[in-house]
Backbone:
C-alpha cells in the first residue's frame, strides 16, 4: 500500500485540527475512510504519526517531521497547478526575482521594461529582501535569482557581478549639515530622518547600522519612493540617506544638498546569485544576461 497527495492533505488537516473527525470533515471524507487512510500511512512509513488521546490526536516526533515535508509538497503542488493554469491562459514563463530596494529602483526599471516588452508572455515576480534573506530564499528554491550585496556569504550559489551603488546624505539647504563635504553616520543620528517605507531593505539596512551604534533612527515620516523622500527633505522635515544616483536625479529639480557619508559601508557592490545558471530556463538566462550588461 502507498499514499498520495490526498493522504498528505488529510494528514495536514488532522494535524492542524488535532482531530481525525475534524480533519476528515475538512478533507470531505467519511470518518472511517479518513481513519483507514491515516492508518495506511503509518503502516507504509512504519511509524506512528499521531498519539490517540481522549480528546483527539497529537503529533508524534515522526508526525512533526512529516508535517514539514507534507507542507512543502502541498505548496509545490499548488504552485505547479497555478503556473500550469497560467500557461493554459497563454503565459509561457515566470521569473521570481528578489532584490534590495536600491537595486530595484536605481538599476532594474529600464532593463525590466525592455525585457517585458520583448517577452509579453513572461511575468516577473519581484520582492524586496535583505541580502541574507535573498541568499536563503534562492538556495531554498523560493526564487530563481537574487541581487544582493557582494560581501554576503552565498554558500554554494553561483554568482555574477552586477554593479555598485553609493549612499549619500541629502539635506535641505537650511540644515546644519548642508555645507559639510562629508559626515560620519554617528554625527547624524541625533537629527530627524525621512525614510523609505517601513520594511524596505534599505531602511532595514540603515536601522541595523544605527542599532550597532547604540541608537535608533528618528523617522518623522516613511514614504514610498526616493522622489517623495527628497520632497520632504527639501522642506526641512528631516534628512535622508539614499543612493547617490537618486539624489543626483532629484537634485536637478529640488533645492537639496548632497553630503558624502564617511563610512566604508556607504559604498556597496552588488552580485547576482542563482542556484545554477545552466539549469534555468532560456528566458531566465536571457534576463540575467541583460541585467549583467
Residues:
Amino acid at each position: 500500500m502507498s499514499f498520495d497527495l490526498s493522504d498528505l492533505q488529510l494528514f495536514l488537516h488532522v494535524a492542524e485540527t488535532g482531530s481525525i473527525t475534524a480533519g476528515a470533515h475538512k478533507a470531505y471524507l467519511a470518518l472511517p475512510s479518513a481513519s483507514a487512510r491515516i492508518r495506511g500511512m503509518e503502516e507504509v512509513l512504519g511509524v506512528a504519526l499521531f498519539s490517540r488521546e481522549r480528546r483527539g490526536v497529537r503529533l508524534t516526533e515522526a508526525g512533526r517531521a512529516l508535517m514539514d515535508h507534507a507542507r512543502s509538497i502541498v505548496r509545490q503542488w499548488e504552485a505547479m497547478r497555478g503556473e500550469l493554469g497560467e500557461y493554459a491562459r497563454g503565459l509561457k514563463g515566470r521569473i521570481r526575482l528578489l532584490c534590495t530596494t536600491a537595486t530595484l529602483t536605481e538599476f532594474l526599471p529600464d532593463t525590466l521594461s525592455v525585457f517585458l516588452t520583448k517577452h509579453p508572455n513572461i511575468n516577473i515576480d519581484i520582492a524586496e529582501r535583505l541580502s541574507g534573506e535573498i541568499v536563503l530564499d534562492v538556495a531554498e528554491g523560493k526564487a530563481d535569482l537574487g541581487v544582493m550585496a557582494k560581501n554576503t556569504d552565498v554558500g554554494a550559489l553561483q554568482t555574477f557581478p552586477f554593479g555598485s551603488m553609493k549612499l549619500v546624505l541629502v539635506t535641505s539647504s537650511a540644515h546644519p549639515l548642508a555645507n559639510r563635504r562629508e559626515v560620519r553616520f554617528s554625527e547624524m543620528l541625533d537629527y530627524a530622518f525621512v525614510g523609505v517605507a517601513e520594511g524596505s531593505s534599505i531602511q532595514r539596512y540603515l536601522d541595523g547600522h544605527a542599532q550597532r551604534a547604540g541608537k535608533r533612527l528618528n523617522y518623522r515620516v516613511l514614504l514610498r519612493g526616493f522622489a517623495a523622500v527628497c520632497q520632504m527633505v527639501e522642506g526641512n522635515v528631516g534628512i535622508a540617506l539614499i543612493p547617490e544616483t537618486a539624489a543626483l536625479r532629484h537634485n536637478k529639480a529640488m533645492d537639496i544638498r548632497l553630503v558624502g557619508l564617511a563610512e566604508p559601508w556607504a559604498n556597496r557592490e552588488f552580485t547576482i546569485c542563482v542556484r545554477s545558471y545552466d539549469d534555468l530556463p532560456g528566458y531566465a538566462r536571457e534576463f540575467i544576461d541583460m541585467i549583467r550588461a
